[in-house]
Amino acid sequence: MTEPATAAQLPEPSEPGRYSVAFVCSGNICRSPSAEVVLRSMLAERGLEDRVEVASSGLGDWHVGDPMDPRSAEHLRSAGYDPDRHRAQQVQPDWLDDYDLLLAMDRGHVAGLAELGEGPVMLFRDFDPVGTGEDTPDPYYGGDSGFSEVLQMVERTCHHLATELERVLARPGS
Q1: What distance in Å separates the CA atoms of residue 125 and residue 100, rounded to the nearest whole number?
Q2: One of 66, 98, 135, 138 is an active-site residue; which one?
Q3: Which residue out of 25, 71, 106, 125 is catalytically annotated?
Q4: Which of these is catalytic: 31, 51, 71, 125?
Q5: What is the pLDDT of residues 69-79, one digit of tens each?
Q6: Mutual orientation of helices 144-170 and 70-78 as an angle, nearest 10°?
Q7: Active site (annotated) includes residue 25
Q8: Strands in 50-100 per DSSP E
């Protein structure tokens, strides 16, 4: 019998006692901002919001300045999160140097980030204790159930990510 996949571990922070993570998807209106909103909330619950910088962006520029997709926003609101401050932005090449970790929502985003240069890039669901190493599906062109499914993945993965951030920041010298 094969062992279940184990979720990834975070790279070391570049600055002791602080961590910076950014989520990246296609247009920054569904998956990556959902992860940003959920992780921010989980970090606030753990008292880590002042030690962890969280951002999100898209590879493309077609939604820059737009709010989150209304369907994503509604699912977040229904789950008790506040999506209203989000405005889409495009990832910049200097993010590869400025962030401790960029989490791509799918393998296409990993490839897109690689075109910008070398940096600390991993697949978001490398931190998912259930679907480790899988892509986060894009709910944009699907129905309501896709947004619900993605939010479940995001919550589960961000919970593990928040636990890992707490662990890394609790180490001596962090």
Answers
A1: 17
A2: 138
A3: 25
A4: 31
A5: 999 999 999 99
A6: 60
A7: yes
A8: 52-58
Look at the domain 19-169 and name its fold: Rossmann fold (3.40.50)
**Residue 158 falls in the annotated catalytic set:** no
pLDDT tens for 9-30 read 899 999 999 999 999 999 999 9
Task: Enumerate residues 6+ apart whose C-beta is below 8 A from 138.
Answer: 25, 26, 30, 31, 105, 106
Binned at pLDDT 50, 70 and 90, residue 173 comes out as low
**Chain Cα centroid distance, residue 68:** 14
- The sign of the torsion formed by the CA atoms of 121, 151, 37, 65 equals positive
Q: Is 138 a catalytic residue?
A: yes
Enumerate the domain spans of the chain. 19-169
Closest CA to 149 of 122, 117, 125: 125
